[in-house]
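Session log. Operator J.P. requested a structure for one protein chain; no other inputs attached. Running the standard single-chain path with C-alpha cell output.
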Amino acid sequence: MASVKTSARKRTDSGHGNGSDLKSIRKTGDSFSSAWTRRVSRGLCILQVRAFGKFPWLVHGFSTRVGGQSLLDGTRVVNLGFTEWDSSEKVLENRRLFQSALHACDLTLVSLKQFHSDVILVFDAAPAEPCRGDASTTSHPGLLLGVQTADCVPILLVDPKRRAIAAVHAGWRGTLQRIASKTVGKMQMEFGSKPADLLAAFGPAIGGCCYEVGAEVATQFTSQFPGAAEWFDELRTGDEPNPLQWLNMAPPGHQPPPRKVRLDLRKANRSQLLEAGLRPNNILVSDLCTACRRDLFFSYRKEGALSGRLLSVIGIRS
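Structure written below.
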C-alpha cells in the first residue's frame, strides 16, 4: 500500500437509452428506492445515498449515462472519462455539467490515473496533474474526490465525526489487494477515524449475475480469503476434472480450459469492510448491475473500447 500527500497546486441486456429512461431506474425494487435517491438536473440523472444527505457539509453522487454532450451510437451520453472515441472538450463539458447538477462547481475535481492497484492517495490540496492510484482520501474542504468505473465497484466512504472522506475504485485486482479495507486503515492513521463510525456506499457495478472470471482468479481469492467461496456462484479452481475434454479428440495439452465462474465483487468488498470494523447497517450497496442495465450505465464487459466511464464523487463543502 502506498500513500502520497500533495500540497497546493441475469444476463439480460436492456440496450442503449436516453432521457426517457430516467423513470426506469426504479425497476430495481424497494432495496434501491428505500436507501437511494436520484437527482435529475441539467438533463443528467445522478444517484445519491439518502444517509449521506443528512450531512449538509457533504456532497456526493454516482453518475449514469443519461444525457450529456457525448455521442455514442447516435445517442447523447454522459461520458466522464477520457476515451479514444470521445473528445476531451466533450468530456470536460460533461464533467462541468455533472458538478453543476450536484451544486459542486466551487469544488475542485480530483481524479486519478487508475491502474487496478492498492495505492491510496492522501490529498491536502488539489494536485497539478492527476496522480496514479485507485483510492483517495481527505479531510480538507473544497476537494471533490472521484473514481471512474465501467463495471468495477465505486465505493464512497464518510466519517461524519472527523469529517473525512474517501473514494475507492475496486476491480477484482484491487479487491484481491484489499484496497477498500486498506483505505479504512489509511483513514484511521491520517484522521483518527473509527471504523464503526464510517458510512460506505457502493455505487452501480457489474453484478455476480454477469461478472465471469477465470478459475485462476478464484484460486487467488480462495488462497487469501477463508470465506471467498461465498463470493462465487460455483467455486472452481481449475483442478477439478474437466468434462469437456471427453467430448473432443484433442491431444493431451490441447484440452479446452475449465469453465469460468461468476464473482460478486460487491459481496467481496462488503465482506472486507465488515472485517475492517464497519457496521453492517452502515454499508449501503446498490443492486444495479452495469452489465444488465446498459440503458443507464456503461459496461466495459459489454461494450469494450466503445464504453464510456461513470464517475463517482464525494467532497466536503467549504
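Operator note: Residues 1-21, 27-31 have pLDDT under 50 and may be disordered.
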